[in-house]
Design a protein that fits this description.
The protein is mainly alpha-helical. It is built from 8 helices and no strands. The longest helix has about 40 residues. The N and C termini lie far apart (about 80 Å).
Length: about 260
């Protein structure tokens, strides 16, 4: 079997033994065979089977790149769907943790924050931050004369997000059971999309390019992304303070 990414001969399987790229030849053949055998409309069984197939594919994708995240440099846009799922999972983990901490630790002290302000809006904002980071990373690759499509950028960001999901969850768990010093894992994981992932992508190519110097592009990238991130944090804190003062005023007027 010939790998479509590096064009080396590899053993049969889902991933190339040389570069680690996902090989879709078997899956495509199975899909074509399935389409030729059945032309009926989708029913509940077909939908559940599709969900199961996507779940298995994502599990294989997740474990493969969790074990070897450096192979993201060989990834193509064919893995864009599981990559997007990884981004959504990271955003969910962060915003759910934020909501639980606020409601359990601070909510007992006259802080009234609803599910919309505490989870839904921060979740959307975090996804928008990821979208901004992806677009800014794609623009940076063009400034440094790297040959990368927007779809490939999305895929690489999603793959590089996988280890930071594990780091964030480990930081939350170890902080919750009060193991000292491991709380530092939380800010490290949160800085992943802003600093580490763009750096991995922009510095992974070893070819001589003729664009702008990557160091200066990265410095500009960090500046812009930190400005956007600080704006989102200020807006989030503003919502919390709004809930705080709302609870205070409510308690004040209830006394009269």
């Amino acid at each position: 079997m010939i790998c479509p990414n590096c064009e080396h001969e590899t053993k049969e399987g889902k991933y190339c033994t040389n570069c680690g790229a996902h090989i879709y030849l078997e899956e495509a053949a199975v899909a074509e065979e399935g389409e030729s055998q059945s032309d009926t409309t989708l029913n509940n069984g077909d939908f559940s089977s599709t969900v199961s197939t996507v779940g298995k594919h994502f599990a294989s994708f997740f474990m493969h790149y969790l074990k070897s995240p450096h192979k993201a440099r060989f990834a193509t846009q064919q893995d864009i769907i599981p990559a997007i799922i990884s981004i959504v999972l990271f955003a969910l983990a962060v915003t759910i943790s934020f909501y639980v901490v606020v409601t359990s630790q601070v909510g007992n002290y006259f802080l009234d924050i609803g599910f919309l302000d505490g989870f839904i809006i921060p979740f959307i904002q975090y996804l928008l931050l990821f979208a901004f980071i992806i677009i800014l990373t794609f623009i940076s690759t063009k400034l440094t004369a790297q040959h990368m499509t927007l779809q490939e950028t999305v895929t690489k960001v999603g793959i590089y997000t996988i280890p930071f999901i594990l780091i964030f969850l480990a930081g939350i768990l170890l902080t919750w059971i009060r193991i000292p010093f491991f709380s530092v894992l939380i800010p490290i994981s949160l800085l992943g999309p802003v600093i580490f992932i763009p750096s991995f992508i922009l510095l992974e190519s070893k070819e001589k390019e003729y664009g702008y110097d990557r160091v200066y592009v990265l410095i500009a990238f960090y500046f812009i992304s930190f400005v956007v991130m600080s704006f989102l944090l200020q807006e989030m804190i503003g919502r919390l303070l709004g809930g705080l003062f709302g609870g205070l005023m409510g308690d004040f007027f209830q006394g009269y």
